[in-house]
Write a structure and sequence with these properties.
This protein has about 400 residues and is α/β, with parallel strands linked by helices. It has two domains: about 10-245, Type I PLP-dependent aspartate aminotransferase-like (Major domain) (Aspartate Aminotransferase, domain 2); about 245-390, Aspartate Aminotransferase, domain 1 (Alpha-Beta Complex). The chain is built from 14 helices and nine strands. It has helices at about 10-25, 30-40, 55-65, 80-90, 110-115, 135-145, 190-200, 210-215, 235-270, 300-305, 325-330, 335-345, 355-370, 375-390, and strands spanning about 50, 70-75, 95, 120-125, 150-155, 170, 185-190, 290, 345. The strands form two sheets. A seven-stranded mixed β-sheet has the order 1-7-6-5-4-2-3, with helices on both faces. α2 runs parallel beside α9 and α3 (about 55-65) packs across α4.
């Protein structure tokens, strides 16, 4: 089975895990701190805070900026549900915003401007697929309205190497990401005070950690804020230190494979569109999303690809259409997001693939589309309509 995503792990990761085990210190220690510094350096940031997931990173970013009950945060609905969940965790309200277009499925600035109110406190911009939204334009948008800017960089580690222009940035190291620690996340922030609050909040609001107390010889500590158990352990940090050394080359490999996909899809499946085709955007090519022709039965296409040994998935079902969110936000309608979510299909993309795999996937996709997947859906829809007219 060609998987949509596959971690690149090997002897170096095994060796570093053995080193951690042999050291006898497996919770937050020197490796976590080294990983934070290495990740910050890779993004030309002053410092970083490692946590146990990107969800934790987003939650701490929201709370670290002082956002809470009574506040509203503009969020995309085309994202993983954690983006919206993190706002609710802080007691604030997510306000769902549509995307720009099927070709550029980033949160729309025009749509965001229309939904700003006196209660709006921040906007979360998610860099879908590893393709960077216009960060400078979003900074200007936030500044003009007195808002905090949070970047959801779950898809985009290593996508930029410059100053942190957002008030907070959250990254993911989940198993399907461009680099992984199995589970894990990282937070960057422009303001060192915000980052200090996030660092303390990740460990129950305690004023010192176990290693700090061991090093200083002082056993006491205080709790000065409501915190959480969002710590990263030494095992994950050790893997992260190995993985980050390869991030740039792996991202480059993803770029090469993506270009191969675009060429072959244009030649063999011209009816399919690939987002971010114009103009070119900075990217680390996290996923390979395609938009199927209107009327295509996506489930049939996916089933046929699976039968050929190819995994596919969807990035993403629209958050506002999940049952839990639909009950609480019943009036939300986002037509572009909803259309994209109904037609998007994610194809395999990871550094373990080669161009022959890309050729195989595109050939199988072309066959799946040519074998009646569009007509199957139209025929089924006609049958349903006829049955509704006839009655039970």
């Amino acid at each position: 089975m060609l998987l949509v995503a596959e971690p690149t792990l090997g002897a170096d990761e095994k060796a570093t895990l053995a080193d951690v085990i042999d050291s006898g210190w497996i919770t937050m220690g020197d490796r976590v701190r080294d990983f934070e510094r290495a990740f910050a350096a890779a993004h030309k940031a002053g410092d970083a805070v490692a946590v146990n997931s990107c969800t934790a990173a987003l939650h701490l970013a929201v709370e670290g900026l002082g956002i809470g009950p009574g506040d509203e945060v503009l969020v995309p609905a085309l994202t993983f549900v954690a983006t919206a969940n993190s706002v609710l965790y802080a007691g604030a309200k997510p306000i769902f915003v549509d995307i720009d277009s099927l070709d550029a499925p980033h949160i729309s600035r025009q749509g965001a401007a229309a939904k700003c109110t006196a209660r709006t406190k921040a906007v979360i911009v998610m860099h879908y697929g590893g393709y960077l939204a216009d960060r400078e334009a979003w900074r200007a948008f936030a500044d003009a309205r007195g808002l905090f800017l949070i970047e959801d960089c779950a898809h985009a580690p290593g996508a930029w190497r410059g100053s942190t222009i957002a008030d907070a940035v959250a990254f993911s190291f989940y198993g399907n990401k461009n680099m992984t620690t199995a589970e894990g996340g990282m937070v960057l922030a422009r303001d060192s005070g915000v980052l200090d609050r996030i660092r303390q909040a990740r460990s129950h609001g305690m004023t010192s950690g176990t290693l700090q107390r061991l090093s200083s010889g002082k056993s006491g500590y205080d709790v000065t804020m409501l915190g959480y158990n969002y710590r990263m352990d030494e095992l994950r940090a050790a893997v992260g230190l190995v993985q980050i050394r390869h991030l740039e080359s792996w991202n480059e490999r993803r770029r090469v494979l993506t270009e191969a996909y675009r060429r072959r899809l244009a030649a063999q499946c011209p009816e399919i569109s690939v987002p971010f085709s114009r103009p070119p955007r900075d990217s680390v090519y996290h996923i390979l999303p395609v938009v199927l022709p209107e009327g295509t039965d996506r489930e049939i296409v996916s089933e046929k690809l699976r039968a050929a040994g190819i995994q596919t998935t969807v990035h993403y079902p629209a958050v506002h259409q999940f049952s839990w969110y639909r009950m609480r936000f019943p009036s939300v309608r986002l037509p572009v997001t909803e259309e994209f979510a109904s037609r998007e299909l994610t194809l395999p993309l990871h550094p373990r693939l080669d161009e022959s795999d890309v050729e195989f996937v595109v050939h199988a996709l072309s066959n799946a589309l040519a074998s009646g997947s569009i007509h199957d859906k139209l025929d089924r829809s006609s049958a349903v309509a006829a049955a509704s007219i006839r009655g039970p």
